[in-house]
Amino acid sequence: MIIDTTYLLPLARISVKYDLLRAIADGKIRGVDFSDLGVSLISLFELQAKASKLGVNPEYVSKAVKVILRVFRIIPFYRRDVVREAHNLRKILDDYIDCIILATAITLKEDLVTEDSDIRKLSNEISRKYGIRILSYNNLIDH
Asked: Is 122 helix (H, G, I), strand (E, B) or coil?
């Protein structure tokens, strides 16, 4: 399962509405372990950019990146198959970083967990064409 950058932000002390990692740690999501989660390398850049924009202490960001590198499977955004698929996705998705993250899930044939509305709008099309699911926090949480 590939997770979008949003879910990494709390590691840098950036508040988000849906704290997926906390829910996993608290056992609120069954059948998902941290070792099951993959992250596109581009998400580390995106996390740093967001933290900088919000004025987050660089030490928090540095620690967050170290945790991410240690805990999650990191998938390079420069893999040939990811680059190729991201290029194709550009036709239907405006944000190139989102294209890379979605392309990562597609090329690895893994579900993507995201709150991004543009990607979620394409959920049915992505499922039909690539055989992966686009999920959100609410799809995973045990209510």
From this structure: coil
